[in-house]
Amino acid sequence: MISSSSTQIHKNTQKLDLICASAPVIPVLTLENAEQAIGIGKALVNGGLIVLEITLRSAYGLTAIKQLKQALPNAIIGAGTVMTPQQYESCVEAGADFIVSPGFTTELLHYGSQSSVPLLPGIGSVSEAMQAMALGYRRFKLFPAAVVGGVDFLKAIGGPISELKFCPTGGIKPTNAADYLALHNVMCVGGTWLTPTDLVQQKNWQAIEVLAAQACALTAP
Ligand code: 3PG
Fold first, then answer.
1. What is the 3-state secondary structure (H, E, C) of the chain?
2. pTM value?
3. Ligand 1 centre distance from Cα of residue 123 (Å)
4. Which of 19, 135, 139, 188 has the fewest CB atoms within 10 Å, i.e. the most exposed one?
5. Cβ atoms within 10 A of the Cβ of 204, count?
6. How do residues 43-96 score in pLDDT, each as one tens digit?
7. Ligand 1 center from residue 68 Cα (angstroms)
8. Domains of the chain in sequence order
9. Active-site annotation holder among 15, 141, 163, 165
10. What residues does 191 pair with on adjacent strands?
11. 192 lines ligand 1 (CB under 6 A)
């Protein structure tokens, strides 16, 4: 899966653009078992959110990626909370379509720049953006978005470094998502609000589908 092509990172930017244009919201999911993975995955996709980020925060995460790749062939399945090249490799083997990290190490950026499965690295400052830009990265997760400056940060960085585009995550909710989506440097937003703990515990997949449909209809104000 590792390519020696120096143009790989540019191809990956194009892949990320297609992925992030597929839905306004990427649900960030921590799945504990097969029943949850299938119930939640189907509900979100039926609601129109076809791009999912399955985190490695649970022991079931990697299996959930494999399972959802088979169960939802029309969905785009990303792996989240990836922090090492070893985890990256495991997620690619599990079938992940893209990889998301909350921050980055130089090692992770190098690995991602050579993989045909694109990395959306997390950044939280202008200097971090510049470090990743030096390796060719142009698409980022802004994390934790609300803590590092949110909409104001994105407006400010959009002036001097206008070629960067972001998927802000961390503190995004239905009440502020549209403010982010209105920015020219925001491709989509990510968040956990689609799967509230009570609905997951009740296995209320129908209510999750309603939340997904509402999120899918989100546009800039
Ligand atoms: C993430 O990993 O992207 C965050 O945990 C999502 O943050 P949120 O819970 O504020 O949506």
1. CECCCCCHHHHHHHHHHHHHCCCCEEEEECCCCHHHHHHHHHHHHHCCCCEEEEECCCCCHHHHHHHHHHHCCCCEEEEECCCCHHHHHHHHHHCCCEEECCCCCHHHHHHHHHECCCEECEECCHHHHHHHHCCCCCEEEECCHHHHCHHHHHHHHHCCCCCCEEEEECCCCCCCHHHHHCCCCECCEEECCCCCHHHHHCCCHHHHHHHHHHHHCCCCC
2. 0.95
3. 14
4. 135
5. 15
6. 999 999 999 999 999 999 999 999 999 999 999 999 999 999 999 999 999 999
7. 20
8. 4-216 (3.20.20.70)
9. 141
10. 27
11. yes
Residue 209 token pair: 């589908």
**What's the residue count for the chain?**
221
As given in the structure block, the two tokens for residue 217 are 């209809």
Structure tokens at 83: 């922090």
